[in-house]
Predict the structure.
Amino acid sequence: MVYALSWSPAMSFPSRLTELRKQRGFSQQVMADAIGVHVNSWKKYESGQALPSSEVLKKMAVALHVTADFLLFDEHERGPDSDLTLQFEAINQFSQEEKHVVRELLEGLILKYEARRWNNRTPEQSPIR
C-alpha cells in the first residue's frame, strides 16, 4: 500500500514518527505492540525524550512501511531517488571491472555537471571579486 505523505521535508524524527502513525490510523499502543516495546517507550520516541535502538528503528520502518532512512533523514540527506536505487542495486551485482567503469562514468558526469554549475555562476556568486 502506498501512502501520500504530507509534511515538510525538514520535519524532526519525533514529528515524522507521529505523523506516519496517525496517517496509518494506528494508536501508540498498536505501534508499541507491533514493534515489541512498552507504550511508554513509544511515547518517549514521539516526544523526543528518547531515541530507538537500531533494531527498534528497523521494526518501526517495517511496521510503518517506510525505510529507516525515511524516518531518520530529511529528503536532501537521503540516498538516491527511488528511480536510481534500482540501478544502483543492479550495479552492485556487477564484476569489479564493470563497477570501475560505472564509477569512472559517474565521476565524469559529476565533473561535467560541476563545471557547468561553476560556469553559470553570476558575478555575485563568484568567490573571487
In short: Residues 82-125 form one domain.
